[in-house]
Amino acid sequence: MLIATLLIFGAALVGPVVHRLLGRFAAPVLALAPLAGFIYFLREAKRIFEGGSVFENWNWAPELGVMLGFRLDGLALLFALLVTGVGVLVVVYAGAYLKGHVHLGRFYSYLLGFMGSMLGLVLTDNVIALFVFWELTSITSYLLIGFDHQRKAARDSALQALLVTGIGGLALLAGLVLLGVLGMQASLDDPWSVSGLIEGLAGGAIDRDSGLVHGAVVLILLGALTKSAIFPFHFWLPGAMEAPTPVSAYLHSSTMVKAGIFLIARFQQGFSGMALWDTTLVVLGGITMVGTVFLASRQTYYKKLLAYSTTSSLGAMAMLLGLGANAAVGAMGYLFAHAMFKGALFLVAGNVDHGAHEKDTEKVGGLAGKMPLTFAAALLAAASMAGVAPMLGFAAKKLMKYGLHGSEWETILVVGVTAFSVMTAMVACMVGVLPFIGKLKGSAGEAHEVSPGLLFGPLVLAVLGVVAGVMPGWFAAPLIASAASSVAGAEKSVSIGLGSLMKADLSMALTVGAIVAGVVLFVVRALWRRATSPVEWLDVVGPARMYTRSVSGTLWLAWWQTRILQNGYLRHYVWTILGTTIALVGYGLYRSGIERIPLPIDQPFYFEIALVMFIMAGAIGASTIRTRLAVVSVLGIVGFAIAAVYVIFGAFDVAMTQFAIETLIVIILVLVVYHLPRFRSFSTPISRWMDVLLALGFGAMMTVLALLAADVTLSGPISDYFAENAAPVAYGRNVVNVILVDFRATDTFGEIVVLALAALGVMTLLRLRASNPNGGTEGDGGKGEGA
Amino acid sequence: MNLLLSITVGVLFAASIYMILRRSVVKLIIGLVLLGHGANLLIFLSSGLVRGRPPLVPMGESRLEGEYSDPLPAALILTAIVISFGIVSFAAVLVKRAYQEVGTDDLDEMKNTDR
What we know:
The complex is a heterodimer of chains A (787) and B (115). Chain A has a domain at 275-531. Chain A is built from 32 helices and two strands. Chain A has helices spanning 2-22, 26-49, 74-97, 104-123, 127-145, 152-185, 194-203, 211-227, 236-239, 245-254, 256-271, 275-297, 302-322, 328-356, 372-386, 392-404, 410-432, 452-470, 476-488, 498-501, 506-523, 525-531, 538-541, 543-565, 570-592, 606-624, 628-648, 652-673, 685-711, 719-730, 735-743, 745-767, and strands at 54-61, 66-72. Chain A has a two-stranded antiparallel ribbon. In chain A, 48% of the residues are buried. The model of chain B has no long low-confidence stretch (mean pLDDT 86). Chain B is elongated. In chain B, α1 packs antiparallel against α2 and α2 packs antiparallel against α3. Classes of the chains: A mainly alpha (787), B mainly alpha (115). The interface between A and B is large, with 110 and 95 residues.
């Protein structure tokens, strides 16, 4: 399984190269990778149908006990076959659909990369790997939706999909980690394996009543519902229709949006029975099912119709999963049927766009004669979607209804599912019939049947839908049954033979009635759209609007805080930093007690007092005198006075350095300062006094810190080591020198490097001529070379 | 003396911060110089003051005995002084150059030149 996944990722890597080398044969060649996976999963299928499952363990980080586990059970098998099988068709289709596109090679990479991520997601048994694959699907789908990156709409939709599913993904990570931690507390064998955790939850090793489990449920549901575009996150999916059609067919019908459904199904055994889990799924799933199919019924654009009806189907699946083990068969059956007919219909939409250059179903008509094969595929798929016997869709609808039995919400759910069926049947007519019947209309006159590469995919999917319905025992029934068994955790049998379903009961009446009502609704669609137009005000308050609001709100917040905190004014930065420091340190000092500050009273010598006065007067003078030369002289006085302090207190090396450096600084400043403007006052008096206040506050804080620091004695000062070893080890009697050139010689070397770099910088700055001839040399004395 | 020097440190820091907060770019350099002095003196103070006993090992002895000035802060400050010299000279030339190119010594106006 790892090999199958890696094979597809490998194909993604070489995609552009293959495309360049093989041109139009690249698609079939690249499709070999998913095909190989498909065949592998088919070979394993028999074992799975018999109730077994395949485990595969690879050492990932054995030292940490992390295994990269893969598991193939019924659920994973269903998804793996869909991912690889539909994947083959879509790669072939994409090759024909985007023929001649400049970035087709890149497209292969994205598509196969997505495929590998999706396959890894459904197969992995490790929660962290699950999350990684999950996010990989989000990222690759971002690239795919935004493939037409020159259009703003495509970029915006891609970003929207990424943000919504990405936030959900983070919630999922938190939920999974929470579960893993709970698993560790419950000392499960492997708390980071999906199957282990689910067993722990189902078996009672992890207490499901605890608040933490409920938190995990909320977080995991958040991940699943955003991914599967369930209300209130349904809005990103119609937007994602900006993607090229093969992407919509693949990501938004059979795979990525079903990742959320997969996750729910995967954790079904673990959480089913918890009121939070069940109720959320049934309520939100039900709202999505009815609400978005209603929105679909008001659309006319091909892909929008399909997109909204897809969210409603996802809602139906989520709702069924919320109903527990009984409805698992219905959920899996509908999932399987949906992948077939919706995939086919998306590809049909692409063909109509390709052949007749029309995206609006109302604006084109009479294509049946021009595009007979596309029409055949469309008709079969639409029939399955509407639930017409003997298509697989018919069986799926029946299974759905069986799933509702025995639920406490049965009545309202039956009503909801019936409404869903009616409107789905109408949408099926819109997409499968409307563009093909009637008189030639719009651009249909110049329409032409599309190339075999474009027909292959939709025909295969549509025909499979029929075959599965007519001969369920061949592959459909066991596949659905084994998937449902692993969802429910108990053996489930599926009888979807036409004979067993053709019973004249209420559910049969509802099914037939729904189709008839759907067709009626289709005929009076213009009236229906007008009658339901009041719902348009929902756009103003809907979640899509919320999304736009919150995105622009976030951007505004970022802009605002950048403007406040990072506005490019040095003194504002200094203010922020120092103000915060003073506040925090001041609070710390206050908490530790002001009275602890030592105030040593001793008798300094008079000349010492005089020196200190010099320093203080110099510092104050340097900040108030307005003549440049005077300030430089005052700075010199400060420096020399400080050097004298060093001498008095036994640091004559420091003092010597200070004398030398101070002299140099004075010389440099004198030389440079005459090329600089005179001091000018730019600030207002208020801001000057504010600055004085801040400066004084900071100075006071430093004084207090200095007093406290003198009082602190660290245990075992390292100076003793130097004092002891300077003479015997380093053969030097001046300990300061020995530290600099022996014990900490590398530090001194670093210092020399800094100095050399500064010298280089100075030289460069002086040598470089002004690049801009107008580079102002106005003001007093801007010419000349300087030092 | 400790108290006096602590106050001196505070005054040096206050003066330097005030200068750094000014809009004239030349005053910024003055502030940098003062900041270096304040920091060095703070390090020097924090080890405790000892008058007239430099950390020199007398001839004939193998180690320092009794009370002596702490050599470690001295070594640190020595390095710091040299580096602050590098910084100040680089900053001075940079400011001179920037003034030549931009034609203003107002930091607020310099902020707008790259637009």
